[in-house]
Specification:
Number of strands: 19
Distance between the termini: 169 Å
Strand order of the largest sheet: 11-13-18-15-16
Oligomer: single chain
Radius of gyration: 42 Å
Largest sheet: 5 strands, mixed
Number of helices: 2
Length: 267
């Protein structure tokens, strides 16, 4: 009887020791709160075709690829989303298609067969913008000057009242008769566009270059101009390689007798 009792105690002791060893070998289960905290994202996860590191991008971090800018945002707590938009410092957008700086989007050869105009994505003050880029292989056209020999004389741009052509460089010169002064009157004025303007000499109130129309009047010439007596007048018109359908100007120049004479009594 005693032998059986002793054997039972030994078996119980062995079982207890084995249970303690198994408990020590098993890893401790982590609290659910810690597991949930580890599972939460630390930022926006990188996309598959990005470099492997870093795996997560913090809120506010940006990543640039091709013409797109990705910004990590947090619209809700612990919810990170990439915001995708055009990288306006490096690319332009046309019809929702992105073009890097230097891309020629559309090109056209002008009727003169020596000028090509391209819509191109260019850098303007650290920003990508669309602009017309002109490639001109034309020989330089000499300026034309018309010497007026009789007034009144009507001055107008080529093709007026239709749109003036490109690459015009034309001048009209008049020297009034002795004791007279030249008087210029504009009937209409519509000169706008790249490198399109009118010059008048002698200057009017210190200004000799004019352009604009009724919708852009800041740099229009006066409607009527009386020049100093016995002073030669030169009116010039210049247009660039690209014109935008403006019709130019029409004007008339005449002579008027100078009335600023000083007379002796009973003259």
């Amino acid at each position: 009887m005693r032998t059986l009792l002793g054997l039972s105690l030994v078996l119980l002791l062995i079982a207890f020791c084995l249970a303690e060893e198994n408990a020590a070998a098993e890893p401790k289960a982590e609290p659910e709160a810690e597991l949930e905290e580890r599972a939460k994202p630390k930022g926006c996860k990188r996309m598959n075709d990005w470099p492997k590191k870093p795996k997560f991008y913090k809120k506010g971090r940006m990543f640039f690829k091709h013409c797109k800018k990705f910004t990590c945002t947090e619209p809700a707590p612990r919810k990170y989303v990439w915001k995708e938009e055009l990288d306006t410092k490096r690319c332009c957008s046309v019809n929702q298609i992105y073009y890097p700086i230097g891309s020629k989007i559309l090109c056209k050869e002008l009727p003169d067969e020596c000028t090509t105009v391209c819509l191109e994505c260019v850098r303007v003050e650290a920003k990508a913008e669309l602009d017309l880029v002109v490639d001109d292989d034309c020989p330089e056209r000499p300026p034309e000057t018309t010497v007026i020999i009789e007034v009144p004389f009507d001055i107008q741009t080529p093709g007026h009242p239709n749109a003036y052509p490109p690459n015009q460089d034309i001048c009209w010169s008049w020297t009034p008769k002795c004791g007279n002064y030249a008087y210029l009157e504009f009937f209409d004025f519509d000169v706008l566009g790249r490198d399109a303007y009118v010059t008048i000499n002698p200057p009017i109130n210190g200004k000799s270059k004019f352009y604009g129309n009724e919708f852009n009047p800041a740099n229009l010439p006066p409607k009527t101009i009386g020049f100093p007596a016995d002073t030669a007048v030169m009116i010039c018109f210049k247009s660039g390689k690209i014109v935008n359908g403006h019709k130019g100007f029409s004007a008339r120049i005449i002579d008027k007798p100078n009335s600023d004479w000083i007379h002796s009594p009973n003259y």
